[in-house]
Design a protein that fits this description.
Largest sheet: 6 strands, antiparallel
Distance between the termini: 63 Å
Number of helices: 13
Helix content: 25-40%
Strand order of the largest sheet: 1-9-5-6-8-7
Shape: globular
Number of strands: 18
CATH topology of the largest domain: C8orf32 fold
CATH architecture of the largest domain: Roll
Low-confidence stretches: 1-13, 34-38
CATH class of the largest domain: Alpha Beta
Structural class: alpha+beta
Radius of gyration: 28 Å
Length: 484
C-alpha cells in the first residue's frame, strides 16, 4: 500500500518546463504516427479495391441493348389560370374540404458524405484551372495526369485504371474535387458535371480518357457508376434515386442505369461490377442551388398588383440558368427543396420582409401569395417550351412566363423561408397548388394530415386569399407531396 501511494504521489508531482515540453512533443509524435498509420491503412484498402476492380475490368463484359427513355409526363394544364375578382366578397368557406387527399410517398435521399479516405492536404498552391458553368476552379493537376488510351479494350482500360490508382497526382486531384463539391455546394448531378468539365479540359472533349477519369473519380467518391462502351467509345452509366425521363437506359442489377452520352442507341458492353459496398445512387435533390459564379442576366421588375409596395427589380445568374437548363427532369419536390439562390434572396427577401412586417401570419401569407399570383405572366409549358418542364424558383424569375407548378414551387419556398411554416404540394388532375399548416385560426378549405391541419393556398388562383380553393377542384381528391 505504501508503494502504491508513493507511485501516485510521483504522478502528482508537477513537471518541470523541459519535461513538460518533451512530454507534449512525444504526444504529438504519437498522434502523428497513429494518424499516418490510419492513413496508410485506408490508402492500402483503397488501392486494394482499385486493384480488384481493375482485375474485373479485364474480364469479359456483358452486352445489353439500350432502352428508350421514359417520355416526360403529360400534365394537362388550364390554358389560363382561374381568377377571382379582387372586389368580390370573400365567400363562405366550408370546413373541412369534402375529400381526403392521398399522401404520395417520397424517396429518402442520400445526402452525399465525404468518402472515408484520408486524402492529403497539399501545401502547394493549385496549378491547373478549368471552368464549370462560368466558374473558375483550381486544382492540383496538370501534365502528370495526362494519359492516352491506345484503344478501349479490357486490358487497356484495366491498366489505365491502375495507372490512375498508382499516380499520386490522382489522389491529390480527388481531394481537390471533393473540396470543390463542398465549397460550391454541389449536389450529385452538379458534381458529376464538374468532374466532366475538369476531365475534358485536361484530356479533351468527349474523349475516352476524360470519361474514364470522370468515372474513376466518381467511383472513388462513393457513387454508383458503371463503365459502358459502344463502337469503341466509353460512356458513363448512372443510376438515380429519382425517376428520370428522356434518357436512354440499361436494365442492370440495382435498377436502371442511364446513358450519359449522345451515343445512346444500340448494344452496349458493360463492366457491371460495384467498386465498393459503400457506393450509392445519385440523388437529384439539392439542399441549395450550386454556388456558381454570378453572371447577371437582364434585370426584370416584379410587383404585386394588390400590394404595390411588394415591388422588386432583380437579376438571375446566367451560369445557374445554364446549369438548370440541362438538369434531368424529376419530381416537383426536388425543385422546391432546392430553394432560391443567395443572389435572388438578397434582393427579394428584404422587400418581402418589409411588406409583411407587423402583419399577422394570415395577412403576411395573403401578401406573399398575391405577389406570386400577380407578379408573373402565365403560360403553359407546352406554349412556352413545347414540352412539360417544371422550373426551379430562380428560373421563374428568368423566363417570360410561368405556370401553376412553377408558382406552387416558388410559393412553397417563400412560405418556408419567410414564415417558417410547413407546406405541401397538392396535385390535381391538371393543376398543382399548395396547402399550408398555419398556426393561426383561418376560415377556409382544409384537411388533416398526420395530425396537422393544412389550408389550401393556391398561388395560381388569381386574386384568391389563402384558404380559398378554385371551384373546379373543391370536390377532387388531390395527391399530397410532403416537403420535409
Amino acid at each position: 500500500m505504501i508503494g502504491i501511494g508513493l507511485v501516485m504521489m510521483a504522478f502528482a508531482l508537477p513537471m518541470n518546463a523541459q519535461s513538460k515540453k518533451e512530454y507534449i512533443e512525444k504526444m504529438k509524435q504519437d498522434k502523428q504516427r497513429f494518424s499516418d498509420s490510419l492513413r496508410n491503412e485506408k490508402e492500402a484498402y483503397r488501392r486494394r479495391l482499385n486493384a480488384e476492380y481493375a482485375q474485373f475490368i479485364k474480364e469479359r463484359w456483358e452486352t445489353l441493348k439500350s432502352n428508350q427513355g421514359e417520355p416526360r409526363p403529360l400534365f394537362p394544364e388550364p390554358p389560363q389560370p382561374y381568377r377571382r375578382d379582387d372586389n368580390s366578397p370573400i365567400p363562405e368557406l366550408p370546413n373541412p374540404i369534402p375529400v381526403k387527399p392521398i399522401l404520395v410517398p417520397q424517396p429518402d435521399p442520400t445526402i452525399p458524405k465525404r468518402p472515408d479516405w484520408d486524402l492529403p492536404q497539399l501545401p502547394t498552391p493549385p496549378n491547373f484551372t478549368f471552368t464549370s458553368y462560368g466558374t473558375q476552379c483550381k486544382i492540383h493537376a496538370g501534365n502528370e495526369l495526362k494519359f492516352c488510351l491506345k484503344d478501349t479494350k479490357e486490358n487497356t482500360l484495366s491498366d489505365a485504371w491502375m495507372w490512375l490508382t498508382d499516380n499520386e497526382a490522382t489522389t491529390a486531384l480527388l481531394a481537390d474535387c471533393l473540396e470543390l463539391r463542398e465549397v460550391l455546394s454541389l449536389g450529385d448531378w452538379a458534381y458529376f458535371c464538374l468532374l466532366g468539365d475538369m476531365a475534358e479540359t485536361l484530356l479533351g472533349n468527349d474523349s475516352n480518357e476524360s470519361i474514364l477519369l470522370q468515372l474513376y473519380l466518381m467511383a472513388q467518391s462513393d457513387y454508383m457508376v458503371r463503365i459502358g462502351r459502344i463502337d469503341g467509345h466509353l460512356v458513363p452509366l448512372l443510376p438515380f434515386e429519382d425517376d428520370v425521363y428522356v434518357y436512354y437506359y440499361l436494365n442492370l442489377p440495382g435498377g436502371r442505369f442511364y446513358i450519359m452520352s449522345e451515343r445512346r442507341e444500340g448494344s452496349f458492353d458493360i463492366c457491371n461490377r460495384a467498386f465498393s459496398d459503400k457506393e450509392h445512387k445519385l440523388s437529384l435533390r439539392m439542399e441549395c442551388p450550386p454556388q456558381f459564379a454570378f453572371s447577371p442576366t437582364n434585370g426584370r421588375t416584379f410587383a404585386s398588383k394588390r400590394y404595390p409596395e411588394l415591388r422588386v427589380q432583380l437579376e438571375t445568374s446566367r451560369n445557374l440558368m445554364d446549369f438548370y437548363n440541362g438538369y434531368p427532369q424529376s419530381l416537383w419536390t426536388n425543385y422546391s427543396w432546392a430553394g432560391l439562390s443567395e443572389e435572388v434572396k438578397a434582393k427579394l427577401y428584404p422587400v418581402l420582409r418589409k411588406g409583411i412586417a407587423g402583419k399577422s401570419q394570415i395577412e403576411a401569407a395573403n401578401r406573399i401569395i398575391n405577389f406570386v399570383q400577380t407578379a408573373f405572366d402565365y403560360q403553359t409549358d407546352q406554349d412556352q417550351f413545347g414540352y412539360e418542364r417544371p422550373l426551379f424558383a430562380d428560373e421563374t424569375f428568368f423566363y417570360s412566363y410561368s405556370d401553376c407548378e412553377d408558382r406552387a414551387i416558388l410559393f412553397s419556398i417563400l412560405i418556408r423561408d419567410l414564415l417558417g411554416l410547413d407546406v405541401v404540394l397538392l396535385h390535381y388532375h391538371d393543376h398543382l397548388a399548395t396547402a399550408v399548416h398555419y398556426t393561426e385560426a383561418l376560415n377556409g378549405y382544409y384537411f388533416e394530415l398526420e395530425g396537422k391541419t393544412y389550408y389550401v393556398s393556391d398561388p395560381t388562383y388569381i386574386g384568391a386569399d389563402v384558404g380559398e380553393c378554385a371551384p373546379k377542384y373543391v370536390d377532387e381528391k388531390p395527391k399530397v407531396y410532403k416537403l420535409q
